[in-house]
Design goal:
This protein has a single domain, classed as Rieske [2Fe-2S] iron-sulphur domain (Rieske Iron-sulfur Protein). Helix content is 0%, strand content 44%. A hairpin with a 2-residue loop joins strand 3 and strand 4. The radius of gyration is 13 Å and the shape is globular.
Length: 104
């Protein structure tokens, strides 16, 4: 298991996102109402950045900043066109107050 530290849980309050870079992969780690989720920072529509765009913390979807596709943060599933394929999701844990994402 390749755990990557994201930061202290209090530094990622509900309704926030932090982009984490680990080698050649970047992921967005989201706090949706106190639950942490991570998705790859790549829209499945055209491989552009995904997690740098807006997101809806109430409904739990990221909005691709390039073409507006909505991607479910919890499952990685596309909710609107032009995206039709899911993006990868990663398990997130909190250990001793530190948020960690499993990139293995």
């Amino acid at each position: 298991m390749a755990l990557t530290e994201v930061g202290r849980a209090e530094e990622l309050p509900p309704g926030s996102v932090k982009i984490v870079h680990a080698g050649e992969i970047s992921v967005g780690v989201y706090n949706l109402g106190g639950e942490f989720y991570a998705i790859e920072d790549r829209c499945s529509h055209d491989d552009g950045p995904l997690c740098e765009g807006e997101f809806d913390p109430e409904e739990g979807f990221a909005v691709c900043p390039r073409h507006g596709a909505h991607i479910d943060i919890r499952s990685g599933s596309p909710l609107t066109l032009p995206a039709v394929l899911p993006v990868e999701t990663f398990p997130v844990t909190v250990e001793d107050g530190i948020v960690k994402v499993d990139l293995s």
